[in-house]
Amino acid sequence: GQSLEQPSEVTAVEGAIVQINCTYQTSGFYGLSWYQQHDGGAPTFLSYNALDGLEETGRFSSFLSRSDSYGYLLLQELQMKDSASYFCAPGGGNMLTFGGGTRLMVKP
Amino acid sequence: DTAVSQTPKYLVTQMGNDKSIKCEQNLGHDTMYWYKQDSKKFLKIMFSYNNKELIINETVPNRFSPKSPDKAHLNLHINSLELGDSAVYFCASSQHFGSTGLSGNTIYFGEGSWLTVV
Predict the structure, then answer these.
(1) Residue A91 has pLDDT above 90, yes or no
(2) In Å, how far is B67's CA from the nearest CA of chain A?
(3) What is the DSSP string of B16-67?
């Protein structure tokens, strides 16, 4: 079957670093994507990991460990505009699975 | 230019009515989707079409019927609306179906259609 776990909510202060963890179980796994969604907006693509290790894109980095069925999104130098929901989406069986996401609140 | 556009953005309707949401993508993608996002932000796939053919049909009441007249359009028709259908419906598209390995398969979402059934 398929399962997906990530924290429902995380709070951090401006300028800090926050890590959003994701554990998953999906058949035919091919990679892990991360999407960001601001309130009232559409989910937008952030990053994709097909191989183990860390991918860096500016202030955001994403990590994958296929053997542990685990990944995380690392956000550095947090800004108020980073307040949003973040979805990890494991790809398996030719489709992405989204869940409830993690709501990140950045405080001054 | 809007990549994935859907209309209407807001829809308030009474129980029992029938309504449609239209979606168009100008990205030249082969695959289109409908997702439902509930009040708890849970985002769940409903349908997926690849080159106008239905390829994913998750457990969705048959009151929901997608139609793809061509690969740039995927409309969603809902019959006999119920209170529990209130949600945000996102249309989306991707270049192809499934993954090409290292490059993944980015999904581009429309702005959503806020459906409220009263």
Answers:
(1) no
(2) 20
(3) T--EEEEEEE-S--SEEEEEEE-TT--EEEEEEEETTEEEEE-S--TTEEEE
